[in-house]
Structure formats: C-alpha cells, structure tokens
From TrEMBL:
InterPro entries: DHH_sf (IPR038763), NA-bd_OB-fold (IPR012340), NA-bd_OB_tRNA (IPR004365), S1_domain (IPR003029). SUPFAM superfamilies: DHH phosphoesterases, Nucleic acid-binding proteins. This is DHH family protein. Residues 1-17 have a biased composition (Basic and acidic residues). CDD domains: RecJ_OBF2_like, S1_RecJ_like. Residues 38-98 form the S1 motif domain. GO terms for molecular function: nucleic acid binding.
Length: 633
C-alpha cells in the first residue's frame, strides 16, 4: 500500500507522524493488491439487502457488511468508515462498520503489478509500462507500440473509428497501459482499457530502469573472428560499438536505413548486416512484417552520400513518420561515407537528429565527418588501410549482432577481398575458409563479378532477392545460386570483352620520368555508354590488362566530360591528397572526389578538363615506385 498524502478529519495542525489511527481513502483504480486486513477505509454504500449492505472502497474493491456488524441504517450513497475483516479465497470481501476515534486520513494511489511485455499471455488482464515507439492511426483504433526492458508489443486503443485515442500521448513518452491481451492475426496485442502518461519523476525512474536493461541486452555477442588477424583486432572495439548501437536500435523499435556502395564489396558488407538485423528484429517483435517495416537497404552509385540520396531518404523517413507514426531511422553507411563530400548530406540529417554510423575503408576525413557521426569504423583511423575491406568488417559486425548467421557468411570475406582486390596477408586464410564451404578461387571471383553485374542493372534498387541468391546469403536454393552466378558472370565477361575490344586500341601511352607506364583514354569517345561495364570498371579492366601485359608499374586514367577514374599498380599515389591539392591549384576546376591511395575517382567542371587532367598527370609523375603496391611483384 502506498501513501500519497494525508488528510485530517479533525485538527489539521497535527503532524502526519503522530500515532493516531489511519483511515485510507483509496483512489478509484485501486485493487485488492492495495488493501490489507484490519485496516480502515472510507467507503460508500452501493447496495442494501436484508442481511446487510454492500460498500465500495474503490471502483473495483467491494464487499459486504453483515447486519450483525452494523450499528445504524444506511442508504445507497451514504458514506462511512469500515474495517476490512477478510478476503476469502473466492474473492468475497467482508467488512465491519468501525470508526476509530480521532483518526487521520491518508489517500492511496493504485500501484499496479507491472507485467513485462515478454511475459504477456493471451487472455490476461495486465498493466504494462514502457516507452511509446510508434503511434499509428488506422481507420479503426489507434495502434501504439510500447517497448519496455523485455520486448515490444502493439496496443490498440479505440475512441471511435479513425479518431485518435489518447491524443495527449507523444512518441517517446513513458506510459502505463492497462488492458487485456488478445490474439490479433497470430500476434499478441493489448486491447487498451486505460492509459496514463507518467509524470516527470516517475517517467525518469522508469526510463532509467528501461535504459539500463536495454543497454545490457544490446551488448554485442562475444564471437571470435573467422580468422586471426592482428590488423583487424585494432577495429574490434569500434565494430562492437556499432553492433551495440544497432542492437539497441532494434530493441527500441526504431527503423534502420542502410546505404552502401553499389559494388561487390558494398554488397558483401550490407547483405550480411541485413540478414543479422532482420533475424534480430524477428526475435524482438511479434509482428511478422516487422523486418519489412523496420529495415531498408539501398545502394549508392556515387562514392559518397549524395544530396539526391539523402533527400530521398529523408523524404521517405518523414513520410513514414507522418503515415505510420514511426521514429526517424538510424542511418548506417557501409563502404561509403567517410569523406568531406558526405558532410552536406550529414548536415541535412542533423536538422532532424537522425543518428548515423559509418563502416568504411576508403581514405577518411575524420575532422570533417566525426562530429556528425555517432560511430565511425575505418582502418585508416588505426594506421591500417583499404586491404581490410568493408565486407570483411561487416561479416564480423553481423556476427556480433546475431551469431547464428555465421554458417551462411564464411565465404563472404573472400568474395569481398577478391572483389576489392585486397592484398591483405590473410586473404589465403579467407579463401581457405571459403573452400571449406565449396568455393574455389575462380568461383569466388565469379560471385564477385556476378554481384557487380547485378548491381549495374539494379541501379538504385536494392534487388534483395537476386543479390541474396547471387551471394548465397539468405538463399534457400543452392542450385539456383550456382546457376545464377554462372549466368551473370558469363554475361559480365562477355560484356567486358566487348567493351575492351572497343576501347583498348584507343589507349594513349607514355612513360613517366619515374619509369611508370601511364595509360589514358577518353571513355566518352571510345567506350560503349550506358551499358556494362560502367566507366569505373572499364578503366579497371583496361588497367588490369596492362598490368599483366607489362609486369611493370602502371597508372591508368579513364576520363569523360566531367570525371576521371584513376587506377595504380606499383606506384604510391595518394589520390585523396591529390584531389585536395587539385581543388586548390586548378582555380575554377571544381575538383572533388576521393577513394583509396591507389584507386579513386574525381569530378570537375567540364570546361576545365584539360587543366585538371594535365595537373593530375604532373602529380602522378612525381609519385614513387613501390613494389609493395604491385600485384605482379
């Protein structure tokens, strides 16, 4: 029984700590949990019978005073003081008329038994306490989603058809809901009888309790990495931070939106994370459609977060909030998002307090982006480099989120490494791991080629089903996977050969003072447009061919009206630094871009192409030869 405040039937000046008898005045919602035998209560007569009277001491606590325990006659509505004699096993309550001398009154608020959401059972009348994570108005009831420290449940409250129930309730409020648990299309749903927004102090206590429990549940799973690698260990704590954020986001019921680079490594990064998060969402939410509502993956064609993409994402999120009462999403950037070019998009999201995490292996600009991010994982931040691909990192991230996905992901780091030409010392270990799963090196290369081919034609679509089947992650038909990879990789090889036949005769060659071979080509003139492979991959394929032919250091530049794609082998370029210098030195060039030290792309004003390319070549001519960066050494 909880005492809220005291009232006095006699002298109000007496202190509340005196020894006078107490008569309790129960709040209307008090139950038998709030009463005890031999205690005194204010009562109201609700019925008169031959053998006594019935009285209420709250809306739900009533009982009989037998005529033998009455000293006067009473009518319905009369007030009196009673003593609770007994509560029988069948629920019947017996009172006696009994007014103590010189008593004081204490009012009592109901403190219901709070049922954890994870323990709800159909048919029970319960009270739950939690945070409002969604408010959706349907044509009938208002549907709230409530998250406590154990789970999430939908709660339907009906005012009238299409009319918002409990309009005083907002997203992120801490509330107490009472109602009956019912089965709604195979899931539990609370049919709400009453809802209270908790006051500041009570809400703060509840929020603190829920936060502490969610923090504990959000802890990443303690998994050992698939291969031992000292370089990767430097990143483990950062990856655990991201896993913790993502797990907490799922537990809170907030949507997650993933943006990833539209290439093999980007897909090897995003698909495992998607699989892990969708499985966790399924475990946390009763709603079988929850993964579809709470997770969205989309590719980014550019090597940074374009304003076009962020505008689409933000518009989608705001529409979701308006139509479905959802919180704004958590944004996860994969194989993308570490550079100064991402800043305008991030600043746009900052107006709406959208949390952002980045897992990337492109050369970063931490001073430009870190203050806009909630987490940032990048090997360059730990004196490592792009040989640790985003796909390798995200396979481990996925396992930290949901370890059960491990058996479906053992081949993925090898695909990511080969797709992104990683020279990591553990590539042999990753390939051996994939061989144990039935993939040899050529098959892994085919998977990567098929992913790139599919990504090219999917453009801005996630292509969830076909990508999962190509990568064999979340795929339910091994034979279909093998046939699809063979078909797509064969088509990709055919299209590449056609492109190289058209373009290679027009490569311009010169020998730089450093001894490196420089090849350049105007892709706008000499390559098929709007087909596979795109300019970046066309440049890469031409570059690979010249590296194999010469066995010497090679730099290749493929350019168009307002862009250039850069590849290097055996030459220590620093493309991010070069881009920064070109932007300052070529006045009016509008140079932007980036990438790795030896792979990158830039954009510029088309009228300044000659000046930009000439300045770029001058900088490349000054770059040092480095056998460590050679694939033929």
């Amino acid at each position: 029984m909880s005492d809220e405040h005291a009232g006095d039937s006699g002298d109000d000046s007496r202190p509340n700590s005196d020894a006078r008898p107490i008569v309790y005045d129960l709040a209307p919602n008090c139950t038998t949990d709030d009463v005890e035998t031999d205690a005194y209560y204010h009562a109201v007569v609700n019925g008169v019978v031959e053998y006594g009277i019935f009285v209420d001491i709250s809306d739900s606590v009533s009982g009989l005073i037998h005529e033998s325990n009455l000293s006067a006659d009473y009518e319905v509505g009369d007030r009196l003081v009673v003593r609770l004699e007994s509560v029988r096993e069948n629920g019947d309550i017996a009172f006696a008329e009994d007014t103590p001398d010189d008593y004081r009154t204490l009012t009592v608020d109901h403190e219901p038994t709070i049922t954890p959401i994870s323990s709800l059972s159909v048919g029970e009348s319960v009270t739950v306490e939690g945070v409002v994570t969604q408010i959706k108005q349907t044509g009938g009831p208002t549907v709230f989603r409530i998250a406590d420290d154990s789970g999430i449940v939908a709660a339907a409250a009906f005012e009238e058809a299409g009319v918002r129930a409990f309009p005083e309730v907002d997203l992120d409020d801490v509330v107490r809901m009472a109602g009956t648990v019912e089965d709604h299309e195979g899931t539990r749903q609370l049919e709400v009888d009453g809802l209270t927004v908790l006051d500041d102090e009570t809400a703060a206590d509840a929020r603190q309790r829920i936060d502490a429990a969610l923090d504990e549940r959000a802890e990443p799973e303690p998994v050992e990495p698939l291969v031992e690698w000292a370089a990767f260990e430097k990143l483990r704590d950062d990856l655990e931070d991201v896993a913790r954020l993502l797990r907490r986001t799922v537990l809170e019921g907030r949507p997650i939106r993933v943006r990833h680079h539209a290439d093999g490594d980007g897909m090897c990064a995003s698909v495992p994370v998607q699989l892990a998060l969708e499985r966790l969402i399924t475990e946390v939410h009763d709603d079988p459609d929850a993964p579809r509502h709470l997770f969205k993956r989309l590719p980014s064609k550019a090597p940074f977060y374009e304003m076009e993409d962020v505008t689409r994402d933000l518009n989608f999120a705001l529409e979701g909030r308006a139509r479905h009462g959802q919180r704004l999403p958590f944004l996860l950037m994969l194989d993308n998002g570490s550079t100064e070019e991402d800043v305008p998009a991030y600043e746009n999201l900052a107006h709406y307090d959208v949390p952002i995490a980045v897992v990337d292996h492109h050369h970063p600009d931490p001073e430009a982006v870190n203050h806009l991010l909630d987490a940032h994982v990048n090997p360059y931040l730990h004196d490592e480099d792009y040989r640790i691909t985003t796909g390798m990192m995200c396979v481990e991230l996925a396992r930290m989120i949901h370890p059960d996905v491990t058996d479906e992901l053992r081949h993925v780091p090898a695909v990511a490494g080969l797709s992104d030409r990683s020279k990591a010392e553990v590539m042999d270990n990753y390939i051996a791991l994939a061989e144990d799963e039935g993939y040899d090196r050529e098959q892994l290369l085919d998977v990567g080629e098929a992913l790139d081919y599919a990504a090219h034609w999917l453009r801005y679509n996630d292509g969830a089903s076909i990508v999962n089947d190509v990568l064999n992650v979340g795929c339910d038909d091994e034979e279909r996977h093998r046939e699809l990879v063979e078909f797509l990789s064969t088509r990709a090889e055919r299209d590449v050969e056609r492109q190289l036949e058209a373009a290679e005769p027009h490569l311009e060659h010169e020998r730089l003072d450093s001894g490196a071979n420089l090849y350049r080509i105007d892709l706008d003139k000499w390559a098929h447009r709007f087909t596979y492979p795109a300019p970046g991959k066309t440049t890469g394929k031409l570059h690979d061919r010249k590296v194999q032919e010469t066995g010497e250091p090679v730099i290749t530049i493929g350019y168009g009206p307002d862009f250039a794609v850069l590849r290097s082998d055996g030459v220590r370029l620093d493309i991010p630094r070069m881009v920064a210098e070109l932007n300052e030195e070529v006045v009016g060039g509008g140079v932007s871009g980036g990438g790795h030290l030896v792979v990158g792309s830039i954009k510029f004003v088309s009228g300044m192409r000659g000046e930009v390319i000439d300045s770029l070549v001058e900088k490349m001519a000054e770059a040092d030869i480095d056998e460590e960066l050679s694939t033929t050494a």
